[in-house]
Structure formats: C-alpha cells, structure tokens
Amino acid sequence: MEGTKTLKFFVTVVCMVAVAGAIPIGDLLDLASQHSDKLHSLSTLLTHELDTHFPPIGHKIMPRPSMCHTATLQGPTDKIQALQFPEHDLLSLVRSLLQSWADPLLVLSANANTLPHPAQSTIASKVQELRDNSNSLGHGLDILSGKMGPASQILSISPYDGNADLGEDNISKLLNFQFLLSCFRRDSHKIDSFLKVLRCRAAKMQPNMC
Amino acid sequence: MWFMKKKGLWLIVLNVNNNSPPGKPVLKQCHSPDKEIFTCWWEPNAHDGEDTTYRLLYEKELTIGILECPDYHTAGKNSCFFDKNHTSIWVDYFLTVVAINAFGNTTSDVYKIDVVDIVKPNPPENVTLWLELCEDIPTIHVTWNSFNIGTKCGWITPKYQLRFKKVDSKWNYVGEQTQFSIYSASPGKLYIVQVQCALDNGAWSEWSNTTFIQVPRSESKQHIWILVSFSAILLFAAVCIMFIKKKRYTNKCCLFHSIQQWLLPPVPGPRIKGIDVQLLKNGRSHEATRALLINHGFPWNGMPWKNQAEEYLLVRDDNKLLNEDQKHTHGKMISNNCHSKPNINNQLNVHNSMNFKEEKTILDDLVDTSQSELVNELNYVNTMKTDTAFSIDTIYVRNVKPVENSRYVDIQRQDVDMEYSTVREPMLFPEKQNKVINRQQERLPYDYTRVKEVNGDMLLLQDPSFRNNTQNTDYINPTPLHPVTEKVHECAESLNDGYVDNPHTHNVK
C-alpha cells in the first residue's frame, strides 16, 4: 500500500515536471515498467492466494462462458513480433488494455468483498491494491502518450459485457472469479512485457538498462 | 498368456499387446526456459508394449485446426519440442497425446497451457568464485553467466538469488543481484555458493551446482594470538609473584581487604555541613536546622521554588547515619536553560515515584521511630516537595563546592519495585515555611519559581519532565531526578530577579 502511494506521489511529481518537458521518456518508461511489474506480481500473488483453498483449474478444461474480453485486442504474440511492433502502436495497445480493465476490476473488487473463500479478506485487499496500482499506471501512461505523440493516444477499449454478479451459486462465483483473474493476469503480463520492450528501446544509449 | 518354467521359478508373462489397445498416456509437464521455446513430456502407460507409438496433437486458441508436434526427438523420448516458429505466448495450447498400436488408440486428457505460465529457466551456469585479499581481509566475489540481455532487449527480466554458507552452518540467502561479494570472509573456512534465477516473476530455477572456495588462514592473526597468550601468561606470573610476596609478610585476611580497598574504595557517606547528626537523633531537629540556617544563610524566608518536585536524597550504603570521616556532600542543581554540558560527577539515581505512603514506611524503617517529631517533619517535608520545590539538602546559595570522592548509592529494596534512595539525613525546615509558601504561591505566576537570592554560585537543577501542579499537599507526579552535576558558571546569567524559569516555559524574566 505504501509503495503504491509512494509511486503515486512520484508519478504526480513526475507529471508536473514532465509538463515542463524535463523528464526524458526513458525515465518515464522506467517508472511505468516498475508499476507494471508490480501489477503483474500482485496478480500472480492473488492467483496463488485463490488457489490455496480452491483446486486450481490448472491444466484441465473447464466450461467457461467465453474467452477473455480483451481477446479482440490483437497484438504481438512472440518476441520477434514484439520487437518489430511500432512504438506508438505498442503504447496504444498497452493503454487500451489497461483501460479495458477499468470496469472489470470494479466487478472483481465488488465480488471480492463477498467471495466465498477462506482467504477472502486478503484477496479483497489485494484486489484493492491492484486497482490503485492500475490507476497510477494509467496516469503515468497518459503522460507518456502525451509526450510520444498523437499516434500513441489512440484508444480502442474492449468493453466488458459480463455480469456484475459473477454467478448465482458459490461454485460458479468462484470459477468465474478465477477465470476473470486469469484473464487479468495474462493482460498484466502483456502490459509489463510491452513496457519493458519500450523501455529497452528508449534506452539504446544505455544498454545496461535493458 | 503362457507359462514358463525356468529354474524353478514360474514366470507369468502377460502379453497384452496381443489383444488390446494401449493404456492411457499422461502429459506430465511442460517447461519454457526463455519464453521463446518450450518442451512437453508425457508418460506412457506402464503396460504399453514396445510397438506402441505416440503422437502429440494440439490446438491453439484463436487458431483453427488441429496441429501435430513439430519435433519429437530434440528433447528425448516421449517429449515434444516447440521451436520459436511454433511458440506463441499469451495464447492457450490444448495438448493431447495419443497412444496407438495395432489394436487401437487411446487419448490422454486435454492439457492446457499458456507458455508464460510454464516459464522455468535453467540454473545459471559458470558460477565462479574468486578470492581477493586486501590487507589480510578476505573478500569472495561471485560471478555467473547472466542472461544476455542485450539480445533479449527487454523481452525477459531476469532476477537472481544467491545463497552461501560455511560448511556446517546454515544457508544465507541474498536476493536479486547480478553479482555478489562476501566481505570479511572467515579465514580458514570453506564456503559453498549456489545461484538460481527467475524470469518475469515466474518460477525459480533449480539451484546451480555447488561451488566451493577455501579461504586461507590468516597468518597475522595467528601471530596476534601468540602475542596475546604470551602476555597473558606473563601477567598471570606477575600477579602470582606479587601474591606470594605479600603473603609472606601479611595476613591473608588483611591482604584480601587491602586488595578490596584498592579495587573498590569505600563509598563515603553523605554529610551536610552544619548538621549534627546527634542533634537529629536526639530529636532536636529545630536546633539542627537553625544551625544550618545560621551557618549558610539559607533563604528560607521566601519560597524558593514553586512547582518543583525535585527530591535530592542522600544515600548511604551502611547502616550508620553518619560517619566521622565522611566528606562534605553538596547537592547541586543547574538550570536547564543553560546549554552547558553537565559534568556529571556524582550519579544519583532517585525516583520520586514512590507514593507518600511508601515513603513514610521507608522513613519509619530508617529513622528511629521514637523520633516521632522528626518523622513528622520528614513527612511534612515530603508533602511540601511537590509544590514548594525545595529539595532536601539541595538548595545552596553560597559556597557551593564540587564534591570530591563522594558518591551516591542506590539502595534497592525488595518491597518497592523501583529505585529510590533512602532518606538518611533529611534536612528539615521549620513549619513556618509553609505559610510563606502559601502566600507566595498566590502571588507567583504559575510557571515561575522564586528564589530569595541569587548569586553566581547558585545553581538550579530542574527536571524537564516536571509538570505544574497546584496542590500544596498532594504528592502528585513524581519525577525522576537529574543526575547531580558540577557547577557551571555560565548559568548564572540566566537567573535574574530571583526568578528561575520553569523548564517548560523557557521564560526568563
């Protein structure tokens, strides 16, 4: 929690300074990468927390309503593609992904408060952290896209059309919660990877940053 | 099924292959070392015959059609290797293995993976330890082959964890660095180091192979030890010789006492100039105090301080009230306003936190109870302490001299759970002081205390933790005493017009 607040404060400071154009893009990307790394590790922890008392879906097929709602947002699916993707498009994709999760995170948060799970309180607090971190990252990316030009500011948000109430009985609630969380985990990893690729590209002068 | 008899043993061989399809294979695990390729392994059924073949078929999310494993051989038997061209991340793979023989085929359960979830790197290679000796302080440096990040260019973010230990001790874990140094390694010890890595907040690899390094013994340290032991032996010999010599001439008992006296000189008892203990014992406290007043010109007309629960108690560690050869003791106080450094000569450890009742008990124990008058006056003094702020034995106007060789000792008593000093030689003040106090209290502002006379020698020791109170008789808010300090001259300037400021207000009028 403190880390998020510190990062938030830092981002605010960065924002003010960045307006004056004082902070180079490389540093902004570095900051954003730290945020996204934290976001990904939080979602991983949350998944583990959920799995402690719930048999992991793991490698079994489970009947799920649909694919992740962000599946329509096409992007690179391997390293070569990622390294060749244009910067503006990459940033635009990252922002779109993040923005597409604004509403579903609310759904996760609301359901976390009444989740039928032994570690419910831990899960609820982690989901809250997730939301805070996500907001901070969003602010940072807005600043970044402002500096990188209009092409990176194109947003294509994939709407979430699932139910706010994740299920009628406990089992389906848990299953849907787990599925939504796994989708988020994947997208947070995408965001993290793309930002790190961008960071490395921006830091070509400093290969040790990569 | 057919039976075979060989050397008395019956062997029953089941020839399943003759009749039935193969058993169900099981996909065991898949791993990706670097997010660019991955491998999967399966386990065939135990009863499968030699002629069973296996095929791995899979489907990809967002792709139509069933695909087959591109490489069955690179990763060994019963495995499938997916190279860069066939590896996509952030998409689900649905894998199945089919076992086929002449009689049919059997399909395993579907195994779903996402490559990013199965990342587990290989342990770091080429872990190297090298020793650096800098002025006989050994330092171990650890390096290893790190991921060549330049070519990866942000695609993976490795982090490393290292652990090391001396032989026969516990592992020390150190996290998230790309190189490591063990400073001040113990000479003569064997160190073991292992490194592991993880990618992208994923799973940790196995620990690398253990690497050893032996730190050589420090020669200079050996020399020092020899020197130390030699000098210890010399010292011991000298002491023994001294002991034996003395023993010839003196009694053992006296020798012991003389050593004791040399090591631990006796604590001189406190003594107040002008107070004759015999007078006190006889109960003529008034005469005793009068003598004191006459001799030293105590400013007892006025009320010295208000709101000072400073208690300054003199202590002896033997049962006598006074000893003839005691030296003078003086209480000293220094105003807190002075930012002078106190030269703490005599340490006093007194807590006034005992309540009135307990103090009375103590007094009863120590003072002859037949001296009821004395006791009463002591009690009176204690009650006045809280607001009148004159401490026993503490207010000196003139001739304050530093005390030499006097010490104050705490007497611990079991029945009171705190440190305090026992009152041995209380200084008693005439009762008429109380009226003066009352009158003065009305006039004085809350925070100020008044002294009758101030000269350069006068010092005040104020307890910063003291709190104001208005009660005359209640014993409130006992506060610990400051240690006694030597006089410091520059404090005199802070005292004016007979007012001494309370440490809390820091106002000096």
TrEMBL record, chain A:
GO MF term list: hormone activity
Principal localisation: secreted
Transmembrane segments: none
Example GO biological process: positive regulation of receptor signaling pathway via JAK-STAT
Annotated localization: Secreted
Domain of life: Eukaryota
Protein's UniProt keywords contain Signal: yes
A GO-annotated cellular component: extracellular space
Cited InterPro entries: 4_helix_cytokine-like_core (IPR009079), Somatotropin/Prolactin (IPR001400), Somatotropin_CS (IPR018116)
PROSITE patterns, alphabetized: SOMATOTROPIN_2
Key word Plastid present: no
Keyword annotations of the record: Disulfide bond, Hormone, Secreted, Signal
Family under the similarity heading: Belongs to the somatotropin/prolactin family.
Protein's name in the database: Prolactin
Lineage of the organism: Eukaryota, Metazoa, Chordata, Craniata, Vertebrata
Automatic annotation (TrEMBL), chain B:
Record keyword Transmembrane present: yes
Alphabetized UniProt keyword annotations: Disulfide bond, Glycoprotein, Membrane, Metal-binding, Receptor, Repeat, Signal, Transmembrane, Transmembrane helix, Zinc
Keyword Phosphoprotein: no
Entry-linked Pfam families: EpoR_lig-bind
Residues that span the membrane, as ranges: 224-244
Molecular function per GO: cytokine binding; cytokine receptor activity; metal ion binding
Fibronectin type-III domain boundaries: 123-218
Location, primary (coarse class): membrane
Cellular component GO terms held in the UniProt record: external side of plasma membrane; receptor complex
Subcellular location: Membrane
Topology in membrane: Single-pass type I membrane protein
Record's comment describing the protein's domains: The box 1 motif is required for JAK interaction and/or activation. The WSXWS motif appears to be necessary for proper protein folding and thereby efficient intracellular transport and cell-surface receptor binding.
Function: This is a receptor for the anterior pituitary hormone prolactin.
Annotated family: Belongs to the type I cytokine receptor family. Type 1 subfamily.
Protein name: Prolactin receptor
Organism, scientific name: Neogobius melanostomus
